[in-house]
Recover the amino acids of this structure.
């Protein structure tokens, strides 16, 4: 059987290169996107947590699969990958037509162990049920290969082009490809493309780092405020804190009132106030962008 293959881009791919393939096919691979030294650091930092993680409790999460989260808090290497300019640039082009800001949706190390069967095929956008309009793309997702990905060890199954299909269309086996790639490469895919973990019959683990971004007005799958509370996030770069959600999602999304005694603090502040103590950071220019979009009839 001839199966479809995914487009492979070189490490110097630009955000424009990535988005062009993403819009057409829904998925692509950037080969050798992570330097070997970074890959070694990542493994050293996250594998102790992975080895301590129990397997899933159902067929979707995987009874021979572990899923380790809170990796922005646990791994400095993961924090660097979250801010990879190729991918944040792609997020800007791919997601900002639908929102004023994008945010971090999920960090998770997925370890598919020997004996795990195929995961049911699905679209990640269904995390929000069926409530989003089909023409709104809510996510840009990545799976960084921490080990080699092969068909035998459970490489992600992907249906190229299914991001443009009708919701009810079901792929047949000839339309399902495999995201085979070397360790250090990254699979980039949209929330609308059909995919699922493969079966592992290799005798060894397959590990992939799932970092996902979504529109700033949507609820995140991984609660970043609890995974990375202010006492942890205070030491992060400001741009990473913004991605975690410590920033206004739009002009009036995300403000709070500090829990202080009467008269001892401002009444309404943006999330950045937690780290700067300054209330004038309101909106980070979002009001001007929202007003401009309204004037253009986009709202």
């Amino acid at each position: 059987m001839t199966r479809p293959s995914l487009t492979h881009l070189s490490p110097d791919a630009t955000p424009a290169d990535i988005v062009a393939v993403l819009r057409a096919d829904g998925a692509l691979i950037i080969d050798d996107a992570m330097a070997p030294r970074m890959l070694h650091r990542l493994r050293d930092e996250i594998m102790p947590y992975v080895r301590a993680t129990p397997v899933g409790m159902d067929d979707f999460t995987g009874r021979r699969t572990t899923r380790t989260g809170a990796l922005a808090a646990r791994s400095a290497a993961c924090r660097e990958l979250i801010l990879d300019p190729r991918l944040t640039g792609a997020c800007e082009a791919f997601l900002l037509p639908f929102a004023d800001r994008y945010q971090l949706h999920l960090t998770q190390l997925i370890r598919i162990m020997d004996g795990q069967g195929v995961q049911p095929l699905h679209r990640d956008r269904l995390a929000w049920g069926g409530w989003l309009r089909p023409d709104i793309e809510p996510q840009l997702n990545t799976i960084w290969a921490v080990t080699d990905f092969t068909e035998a060890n459970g490489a992600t199954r992907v249906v190229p082009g299914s991001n443009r299909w009708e919701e009810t269309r079901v792929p047949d086996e000839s339309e399902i490809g495999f995201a085979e790639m070397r360790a250090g490469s990254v699979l980039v895919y949209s929330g609308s493309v059909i995919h699922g973990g493969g079966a592992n019959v290799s005798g060894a683990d397959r590990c992939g780092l799932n970092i996902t971004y979504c529109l700033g007005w949507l609820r995140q799958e991984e609660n970043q405020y609890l995974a990375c509370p202010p006492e942890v996030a205070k030491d992060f770069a400001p741009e990473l804190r913004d991605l975690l959600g410590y920033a206004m999602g739009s002009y009036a999304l995300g403000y709070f009132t500090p829990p202080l005694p009467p008269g001892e603090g401002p009444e309404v502040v943006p999330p950045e106030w937690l780290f700067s103590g300054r209330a004038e950071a309101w909106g980070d220019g979002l009001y001007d962008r929202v007003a401009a979009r309204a004037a253009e009839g986009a709202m």
In short: The beta strands are 8-9, 27-30, 65-68, 102-112, 139-145, 157-158, 177-178, 186-190, 195-196, 206-215. Residues 224-295 form one domain.
